[in-house]
Each structure stands twice: as C-alpha cells, then as structure tokens.
Design a protein that fits this description.
Strand order of the largest sheet: 2-3-1-4-5
Oligomer: single chain
CATH topology of the largest domain: Alpha-Beta Plaits
Radius of gyration: 26 Å
Structural class: alpha+beta
Helix content: 40-55%
Length: 174
C-alpha cells in the first residue's frame, strides 16, 4: 500500500471513529462468507457500523484522536473487525446473539465504552448487561415520578371515599 493511500485510510478511520462513542474489537476471520454476510446484516439492522481494518492503521488513527484508546492497543493483534455504535451494549448483544451454542465466533477482543476499556472474553456478559445512557436517564425519571404518582393516586382514592361517605350520609337524612 502506498504512503498516500495509508494516509487516506488513516484519515477515513479517524473520521469514522469520531462519529461513534463506542468501539468494539472482534475477531471474525474464521467465519465463512455466508456467516460474515449474516453478521453484517445483523449489525446494519442494529445500527452498528462494521469495518475490517489493519491493526497498524487503526492504531495510528486512534493515536491521532483526542480520545485515549491506549487500553485497546494490546488487543490489536491478528485480524481485527471494528464494531462501532453509540449505544454501549448493542455490539455486545450482537456478538452474543450471533453466536450459536458452543460457538466462539465472532470472538470478542476488547471494547471502549463510556471512557472505560474492557479487555477479554470474560467481559462480554457484563457489557451485554450494561445499560445505555438513555436507559439510565429513563430509570431515574421513572424513579422520580413514582412518589408523585403515589401521592396523586392516594389523593384520588381518598376523594372517592369521601364522596361515597357524603353521598351515603345525604341519602340517610332524607
């Protein structure tokens, strides 16, 4: 590859990395063409960008960005497939869901999620259970709304009881 082509490829990788907040590194070389196509389709449906890149070019692109990807450098060995997303757990769920029983392909290498680096296959389950920022915000909003809903429900229930008592008393006096 010519030096100019490498520079253009590094620039393209940098631009792509800057568009996403979540970076997963996976190994997909032992997948056949049909399974690779299925993985690409599943990634597209899940809103995940999938790219196969050369490790040296990826490392150079990562070094030129403001984000500290240094924890991922040790995982840049062999063939590397990038899975990029803006949802922290989407690529992990894709990898886990794509695997069949007892299959280890695609193999999870490492991930950069919310300024944290996860390295090794043992972290895949934890990443699958990781909630996204929007899911956490929704949980907090639901928790904040719960006491207010309880108060309103109690007031409405009390008003209904009071109305029933007054109605019963008014009928007795007649």
């Amino acid at each position: 590859m010519k030096k100019e082509d490498k520079a253009l490829t590094i620039e393209k990788i940098k631009q792509t990395l800057s568009e996403y907040s979540v970076v997963y590194l996976a190994e997909t070389t032992s997948l056949n063409a049909e399974r690779t196509t299925d993985l690409r389709r599943a990634a597209f449906k899940a809103g995940i960008k999938m790219m196969v890149v050369k490790n040296t070019l990826l490392k150079k692109a990562m070094e030129q960005l403001d984000v500290d990807y240094s924890g991922l450098y040790g995982s840049l060995a062999g063939s590397t497939t990038l899975l990029l997303s803006n949802t922290g757990n989407a690529p992990a769920k894709l990898i886990k869901g794509f695997r069949q029983k007892k299959e280890t392909i695609p193999a999870f290498k490492a991930a950069y999620v919310e300024e944290t680096v996860f390295v090794g296959e043992q972290n895949l389950e934890a990443l699958c259970n990781l909630k996204s920022k929007n899911e956490l915000i929704a949980d907090v909003v639901a928790l904040l709304q719960s006491p207010a809903k309880n108060v309103i429900s109690a007031l409405q229930s009390g008003a209904g009881k009071l109305h029933g008592i007054l109605e019963t008393l008014s009928k007795k006096e007649q």
